Amino acid sequence: MKLSNQSLRTKQLIGFGAILLMLILVYLYSIKKMSDLNDEIIAVSNNWLPRAVALSELNNNTANLRISQFEHAYTFDEEKMREQELEMIELIDQITENIDTYEKLKEESEAQNIYTEAEKNLYRLFTDNWEVYQDLSFEFFVLSRENKKQEAIDLLNNEAKEAALIGGGALEQLVNLCQQESFDAAQRAEKTFRSAKGFTTIIIIGAIILSLYIARKLVNMILRPIKQLRTAAGYISKGDYDIYIDIENNDEMGELSESFVHMAHSLEEAQNKLVQSEKMASLGQLTAGVAHEINNPVNFVLSNVNPLKRDINDVINVQKKYEEVIKYHNLENQFAEIEKFKNDLDYEYTLNEIDKLLEGIEEGGNRTAEIVKGLRNFSRLDESEMKIANINECVDSTLMMLKNQFKNRIEIEKDFSEVPDIFCYPGKLNQVFMNLLSNAGQAIDGKGKIIIKTWNNDQSIFVSITDDGKGMDENTKSKIFEPFFTTKDVGEGTGLGLSISYGIIQDHNGSIDVKSELKKGTEFIISLPNKQ
Fold it and tell me: Nearest to residue 282, comparing CAs of 388, 425, 420, 416?
């Protein structure tokens, strides 16, 4: 099935599911790469480098042993010779410790499969020659103690020299090999980190772009039909029922738009029924359906903005963890290329832009929720029972419906007092305010002002609606509440708006008065009892 035919909730779940999947992939990939990086770092810090250190000390101690042996061979002072013998014995012990340390590290490296064949061969060559040299060293001690200095020197310069050269050369190569392997392991760790960081950065940016795209797409899916419905409602309020709404999808908004068009056509067929058509002009039932249909999707978008912010912050925290690892192990120089890549991307600007975009999405959702609230407050025409309502809120919801009609042409000045709630028919009062405010707007040629005041006393609540339009003479003013009387051109009005409004106020046991002068404007004053 096509995605465009799925419900809004399904589309939202698919969209946020895709984002969540990308975030999970980043998380799992980051964990794996961090584990690989940790293994590489441990291999360097716990094995390669310690082996290189052990071999370096072993190399130094074997060299020092040979030097001490030559010094001993040319020394004739017995006390000095004893000191040298002790020193050589201590060096041999240190060499044994070095070999033991290396052997342990070698076993660990073999278990981790990081012990190379080249290192194995060099170490065998060293140990073979060290055993020979060690045997010759004991023979050297015997000759030296028997005061056979020349034989001892000849031993050092011949048989022992060959074993020392071969063993020392192998040992020196071992040191270089371990140092090189340490460097190579560090480079592999750097490569692993760069790969992980680069991939994670790409996925993070992709997830951010995808999330913004999906959020924008979802908002547009909701706002575009709403704008079309609002425009169509404006045409219908003017009596133009020949409307067209572009229905692209078969989701809830498509069904709502189709229902709207169907209802508009139904209104057109019923326009000859004068009283009913005047009621229909308020679109109360329709706006109730619109408010009900779009309330859940709008709430869904708003409820997902904060989780989306938290998810993006979690992804950013993963990035920060990488930076902490780099600083902890002093690897800034190895990762300079990544830092340059961040600067090229203007990473900090991207993060700030994400916050601003999410704030914009949240603000748009809140504005849409306010529109829905106005529609729901206005859509109570079919109420058959009196309910508690606030007159100020009724006027506000009506002004919301007329916002486009007044926009950039008529200034609305509100002077509301804190009036008590009353028992009334809120939908019917909305119809009264709609009729009076629409007439006030139509009475103004070009730009003008409408002033709305509310106040109360112990018995009544008052609502005053004043315009600075063309006004009325006394003859017109005496007929405005008569059914079918209108000052509009033929076809532009039914003449029932004010008569119906008068009847509604009478049903509330209230009154409606009018003050008007030609070219000075008109004021309607409604009074409603505090108690019904």
Answer: 425
